[in-house]
Amino acid sequence: MKKLAFAIGSICTALAPAAFGQYYGDRHRDTARVVESRPVYEASNARQECWNPRAGHYEEVRAQEKTDIGKGAAIGAVTGGVIGHQVGSGSGNTAATVGGALLGGLLGHQVERRNDRDEQTDLDRSRCRVVGGGDSGAVLGYDVRYEVDGREYVTRMNSDPGRRLVLGRDVNRDGTPYN
User: What's the maximum distance between 2 C-alpha atoms anywhere in the chain?
Assistant: First the structure.
């Protein structure tokens, strides 16, 4: 009797991993793993900040391109004008001063734009947060990053999907987002 119980227990022990693996595979075969889900808020006084590892603190994310002319252009124009005035002489002095101011202003503006872009590229975009706004900004949806068969996709959903998406219900059966 003990030998029979031992034999049955051995068979069950040997088959259990295969049965569990099959169940695990069936359960997740038609799902996608959610990598990240971030809430999207309606416009309010909320702003996005991302971590700047070089500075060691969060910084507000600003627009990449600035159209206004800032202090870089002003400093460049003054410096270029002074240098142009020193180089020119006689009737060409005015032209050299104006030309130096124009070139200095353009150069100063380009340097300022490059520095602003470099500051923004220092930000760690994977470590961002939304600050301010309080409860006034309602959640519009969730930007969801998910993985299917080793490929990553991004979609916006009305609600937080949790840890898994169901293929064919939440996203297309091939993993691509619904349009």
Answer: 120
Write the Ramachandran bin of 69: left for phi over 0, alpha for psi from -120 to 50, otherwise beta: beta
Q: Which two tokens stand for residue 97?
A: 């001063």
Is 126 in contact with 48 (CB distance < 8 Å)?
no
Q: Is the dihedral of CA 65, 68, 70, 76 positive or negative?
A: positive
Question: What is the residue whose two structure tokens read 């872009």?
Answer: 117
Beta bridge partners of 39: 142
* Residue type for position 38: R
**Cα(35)–Cα(173) distance, rounded to whole angstroms?**
18
Q: Who contacts 82 (Cβ-Cβ below 8 Å, separation ≥6)?
A: 100
User: What is the model's pTM?
Assistant: 0.38
pLDDT digits (tens, 9 = 90+) for 129-177: 877 665 556 788 899 999 998 999 999 999 999 999 999 999 998 888 8
Q: Where are the domains of the chain?
A: 30-46+138-179, 47-131
Report DSSP state, residue 164: E
Closest by CA position to 97, among listed 122, 109, 80, 115: 80
